[in-house]
Amino acid sequence: MDEHYIISSSSTSSSLMIPNLQDSPPNLSSTLQFLLQSQPFWVNYAILWQICNTTQTLTLTWAEGHFHGLKNPPKKPVILHDYVDAEGSSMDDMVSDVEWFYMTSPVRSHQIRQGGILSKAYTSRSLVWLSGSHTLGSYKCDRVKQAEAHGLETLVIIPVSNGVLELGSLELIELNWALVQQANLLFGRLTFNDQQISPMCLSESSHDSDKVDKRKGKRGGQGYRGQPTTLSNHVEAERQRRKKMNNRFYALRSVVPYVSKMDKASLLGDTVTYINELKSKIQSLELEIEIMRECAKKSDNCSTSMLIEDVNILAGSSENNSKEISTGISPVVEVKMVGDEAIIRVQCENINYPCARLMNVLKELNVGIQHATMSTLNDLMLQEVVIARVPKEIRSEDDLKDAILRRFE
């Protein structure tokens, strides 16, 4: 059954039975672990948020946390099974939704003036106990919506000294006053300054997250007397694994230009979409390069052929020019056939409008003119005409040349 409780601290009862706290550990990490392990039900994680003053703005930031794990973890990993960390060792640990939600919490901060479930519990000093997916889904708060999206069934916010304590569970847990009383006794007498924790104002940048990881690593080395060595190693290994995972996903998020949401599934989905877009762009660019290469080859072949022809024509024209100048004889005509088209060059004296005479000749031959140019040098005129639709009877170079000469003279 869904339950939603917001209870002020004055309404709590002091007659409830709670576990013995004489042997409770003195530091924050161990205290959180002790709190979770002493409950009759399974709480997946605990996060202690502390208040700090950032640029004259009160903000709740990460102080310490403990991930209790899954009650019934799967035997085989199903997510990130091919992940390899920076040192080259494989990380085949499964990252569940609730663990991802916990791992992304250190980089988050909650301003008091912006409201939210954490700020509401801190300012009103009231317990907030949400249980049931319907209750979490109807609560208007980003933190609660993210918790519900990651499968949490119970979310508890307890105001404590210098901040609030957040507890999350995949199980549906009814209001338990023993847990509330135990949290108040553990963290009400334990101030954060006694644990040598300076205020941390976290941001979303990877630079700030590195600082957070370093501070957490320092606190992780402070164990309490009587704690087994294997447990300390397990806690440290978990922190190192979480740090490496966070760094890799921070790096992934920095190279993806747009991220729809900050959860694990959305980040990986947006990454896949971005990679597919890059592949499509690469294929399009490769296709354009191939087309440009083919066009360049054809253009080079055509340009080379035309250049050779132009050199030959100019060479012949130069020889004829010298003859014309030296002998002073009639106009010189050069014809070059290119398929159904022809290039005509006519060199003559600039007397009696040679341009008009050449146009009349071409009109008599019933050919189409595509392009024509003329230039003069002293007493000489050089005309160049590109024609089309050459009649079949004069389609050879010699026949066309003779026809032009007969009419032009």
Automatic annotation (TrEMBL):
Could you tell me which residues belong to the region Disordered? Answer: 202-237
Under the heading Pfam families, the entry gives: bHLH-MYC_N, bHLH-TF_ACT-like_plant, HLH
Q: What's any one GO cellular component for it?
A: nucleus
The main location class comes to nucleus
Molecular-function GO terms, alphabetical: DNA-binding transcription factor activity; protein dimerization activity; transcription cis-regulatory region binding
Q: Where in the cell is it found?
A: Nucleus
- Kindly give the Gene3D superfamilies that the UniProt entry links to this protein: Helix-loop-helix DNA-binding domain
Does Transcription count among this protein's keywords? yes
Q: Where is the BHLH domain?
A: 229-278
Which keywords does the record carry?
Answer: Nucleus, Transcription, Transcription regulation
Q: What highest taxon heads this organism's lineage?
A: Eukaryota
Q: Which PANTHER family match?
A: MYC (PTHR11514), TRANSCRIPTION FACTOR BHLH14 (PTHR11514:SF40)
| Name of this chain's protein | Transcription factor
Source organism per entry reads Saponaria officinalis
